[in-house]
Amino acid sequence: MAVDLLLGLQWGDEGKGKIVDVLTKNYDIIARFQGGPNAGHTLEFDGIKHVLHTIPSGIFHKGAINIVGNGVVIDPVIFQKELDNLHKFNLDIKSILLISRKAHLILPTHRLLDAASEAAKGKAKIGSTLKGIGPTYMDKTGRNGMRVGDLEFSDWKEKYRNLADKHEAMIGFYDVDIQYDLQELEADFFKAVEKLKELTFIDSEEYLFKAQKEGKKILAEGAQGSLLDIDFGTYPFVTSSNTTAAGACTGLGVAPNQIGEVKGIFKAYTTRVGSGPFPTELFDADGEIMGRVGNEFGATTGRARRCGWLDLVALKYAVQINGVTELMMMKGDVLSGFKKLKVCTAYNYKGETITHFPYNIEPESVTPIYTEMDGWAEDLTKMSTASQLPAALNTYIDFLEKELEVPIKIVSVGPDRKQTIYR
Ligand code: GDP
Ligand code: IMO
Ligand code: MG
Question: Residue 177: helix, strand or coil by DSSP?
Answer without folding.
Answer: coil
